Amino acid sequence: MAVSSADRLAGIVGVGERDTLMFPTALNLPAGHPLNVADIEPRSGIWHRGDPALQTAWLDCRMRSAVLSTDGFRRLVTDGWINPPANRARFTLIYTPGETPGYSAWWVGQQEAQPADLEVSGRPDLGWAQLEPGWPVNVLRAMRVAVIGVGSIGAAAAEVLAGYGIGTLALVDPDRLLSHNLIRHPLTARDLGRTKVAGLADHLRRTWPETAVEPLALDAVVDADRIRPMLKECALVVCAADGVTPRRVVSHLARHARIPAVLACVLEDGEIGEVLRLQPWPSRGCLTCQREHLAGSGGFDPEPALDAPYGLGSDDRPMTAVAGDLHLVGTLAAKSAVATLLERAGHHDQILPGDHLLLALRPRTDLPPPADLRRTGDQRWLQVGPPVPGCPTCDPDTGPR
Amino acid sequence: MQVSTAFGQFQTIVNADPSSVAEARRRRNLFRDALQPLRDVVSVIPSGSLARATQLDPIHDVDLLVEFVPAEHPEWGSPGGSADDALTYLAGQVMRTLGATSGTVANEVRLTSKRNHVVKCFLDDPEAEDPFAVEVAVALRQSDGSLLLPERYNSRWITADPEYLISQVAGRQQTWSDFVPLVRVLKWWRTNSAGLDMKSLAMEVLALRCLPVQNTRAAALAQFFTAAATEVMYGVFDPAGHCGEIQPDLDRDATRSKLLEAAELANEALDAETAQDADKAVALWTQLFGAEFPQPSGQQSAAKPASAVAATLIAPRRRIRDIPQG
Ligand SMILES: [Zn+2]
User: Fold this and answer.
1) How far away, in angstroms, is B240 Cα from ligand 1 center?
2) Does ipTM come in above 0.90?
3) Which of A66, A152, A209, B199 is 20 to 30 Å from the Cα of A306, by its Cα?
4) What's the pTM value of the predicted model, to 2 decimals?
5) Per-residue pLDDT tens digits for A177-198
């Protein structure tokens, strides 16, 4: 057995007879797991054939925090009994094929046998299949979703999308992970200096091995020609890119690819989270049109022509949004994206209350309507208005019908 | 009454009367027997709802494609007058073989009338209300298996593949024997819902896209209405990919509203069924389909429609600058 004393954890790495190792049993644990570097203690446990009553006793003892007497335990061992050493309890595994549970584990001492927690690793029946039929695993497994911008919001959204069971994620972002990102980004110094898409792809493959990840170190604006055909293969695009220009570009490209876009960001100084779903339908407008509708209502500035630089944590450009709030907005964006896909697949419980969510994160008392949310966590869902006549993105002569 | 019992009874109301289906088939076969032996005909192919078994009562018409040997009509298939010529020729052959006064095979067709794509052959008095007609089209097989059909009004020939939808529907029916009966239920809903101006073919294509294989008819319909409400916003297109949007003037938003309304009722009905309240479930389905759906046996419970609340906008004190971060 490999034994990690600090974790009070042991793993069976081989089974044999006396001093001869007959069956090495690979644990197949990922790099960094303590059992991979733990000391190997040979002949540290015993593998018994036992009476099925031992398995029931194991469940019973665990439930009632009880133990068996070593004598009682011994009577249920079918063959191969060896007295435990005097100085410490010995690990014992009982296997009864065809029973449920098939395995039980014990620490057997001179006086008593104590049930041990047991986990059988590498079972083939794990993964998304465990969520069926309650969750539409196969519908989402067949989907490809693009995430454009994998900063703090986009990376959080990508993780949640994988957790919902999206089959393929295309990650788009040209930036590298820098030291000042670490305070808010889900990635750690382990990926410092790498492109965010490469680091996130590795991270997601470790965490969600059933999701295929395609890292693309591209810029939504500069590389629009390469992103355009990619979006045609996607069911939906989530955009968490910084700044007005890339968001406008994604709004435009998604509409022409006839796929919905979910745009997520925080506004002002992290006061308000925004998740905006744009449907490529003739009666729904694009990002620019929706901003114009809201500007007409007086609450929003139209999209400014120039992007203001975002906070870097320096004195003149303070960082204003905190990791938890950004991740919350990313999570809501992923939820909105998955709900959009599932509604189209006929899942009535995934119909959103609207297309445009405003979420109070750190609301000031003087926020104007429709963002006049007073308490953190307050939400308001708005509808997306129709295209504004003459909009170059929504015009039916140039855009989709 | 259990929901499945109610759907069973409703299905017999929706289905076309077997005797009228038999009569429609007899008339279709009459055309096949008359035209198939002709020297320049490859085959006579049933199409339309009767071929897909998705027909509703009353049956007004039956569709047939007459595939001709291209070598016998080398001038057909090119833009120009040949589109009209081909339909004129077919109308002549129909009257010659089936005309009421001098048909060589039978005497059943009173009148033929050329339309954009077909020759409409009246077997009943054309002046009667909804007279029965057989619509016959000229078709030329192309090398990729699709068909070339004349379009008179535009003096051209168009590519179409009506056999694609027939085979798709048949394939789905093989997977689930409730599929085609449910398409008839959806077409019935379409016909009997006030303010729904959707074409019958559009509904069939929407069903092919959005009606899933499910454990129960109720669950499948509930999922259909929800999915279709979104799908219709993308437009309903020829599934074979040749003829573009089936109904370009369809009011998508109005259709979506109708489908969402139905989705709301259907899913409430599903929830009631899950909660073992069969009477409430049947009452909700009755609300959805109207009085011809069986009434619940017990007390009827009312379903409340969902309402949306619009945000009120007042003059702002301050403006949000849209400068996304993160
Ligand atoms: Zn627009």
Assistant:
1) 31
2) no
3) A152
4) 0.87
5) 999 999 999 999 999 999 999 9
